[in-house]
Amino acid sequence: MDLKLIDFMQERPLVIPRCLFKNYHKLNISLEELIVLIYIWDMGDKVVYNPEIIMNDLAMDKFKVMEIVNSLVEKKIIDIVVEKNKVSKKSEEYISLDLLYHKLVNLVIDDKNTSSDDDSSDVFTVFEQEFGRCLSPMEIEIIKDWINHHFSNDLIIMALKEAIYNGVSNMRYIDKILFEWEKKGIKSKEDVIRDKERYHHEKKKKDRKELFDYNWLDDDE
Fold this sequence. Notes:
Elements: H1 3-9, H2 18-23, H3 31-43, E1 47-48, H4 51-58, H5 62-74, E2 79-84, E3 91-96, H6 98-118, H7 121-131, H8 137-148, H9 153-165, H10 171-184, H11 189-213
Helix pairs in contact: 4-5, 7-9, 9-10
């Protein structure tokens, strides 16, 4: 058996975060750019920028390598920084991946927020439980429209419960609640709670004022 082949198979594996593969299209980069980016990632942070080395390792045309690197810089995926080499004391160009790291972190955070907020299956289940029946196709479309309008699941469910509390269980009434909240700038469950607290506080003040303003001397009873 060829020992060189065994040595090759035992080389350090290339480790690339799954989030890069899942989100590279969101970064607006091509497959060729992704290949160069993976190569740079594997070389480590702050790689000395030498197009000829990349060209030889990836069997790419030198000018193509330069074009891809320039494109990644323009897209703010990587950055070329100039620093002095600690050994030679000469200024050299390095490829920094800091911009890529920040972009990937933001994408992962956005994905988590989206997945937690856009999993609409629970919303439909809550509606069916509150209505005590299956939703009609039209009702399902109305809920989808709310979600597409960027009302959060929590806010939709709060509007449903508000309607049930008021003894009304139709979609038109819930729709009115949601858009009234939108006018007030209410975007979350916490906003609804604060608005209710504000309403009850103002109502108490009004009731107290009416009580003190009442003319007890003119009360015939």
